[in-house]
Amino acid sequence: MLSQDTKFQYLWNCNEYLEKASRIILATDSDDSGQAVAEELARRLGKERCWRVEWPKKNDAELCKDANEVLMYLGPDSLRKVVENAELYPIKGLFKFRDFVHEIDEYYYQSNREHLGVSTGWRALDGLYNVRI
């Protein structure tokens, strides 16, 4: 970390503690500038160690902007749940299993004939194995 970077001086002041942390939860404001700060913090701290919170709705139309709004509108138990349910910070090229559930189900239940592949030439084996091109 660069010690001459004054904009993030608070990070460098805590460097000794942050280096030991295996999990860092980012709970920045939900607006564009808050998301930009979260992105920069994750970049500097290592996205693989960062988790981010997703602010809940404060009413039918609006999301909470930050932790303070969660406390004011929903209470401390809701804030605790938000932090406990933080998700791994997205890393380009890294996917979640749930992103592929539909495709896996489709392949497993053979509902899409394109995914079945080419016959092996033996009918008894085709039910168990096909060559996918």
Automatic annotation (TrEMBL):
SUPFAM superfamilies: DNA primase core. It holds the Pfam family Toprim_2. GO terms for molecular function: 5'-3' DNA helicase activity; single-stranded DNA binding. Signal peptide: none annotated. Gene3D superfamilies: 3.40.1360.10. This is Toprim domain-containing protein. It comes from Zingiber officinale (Ginger).
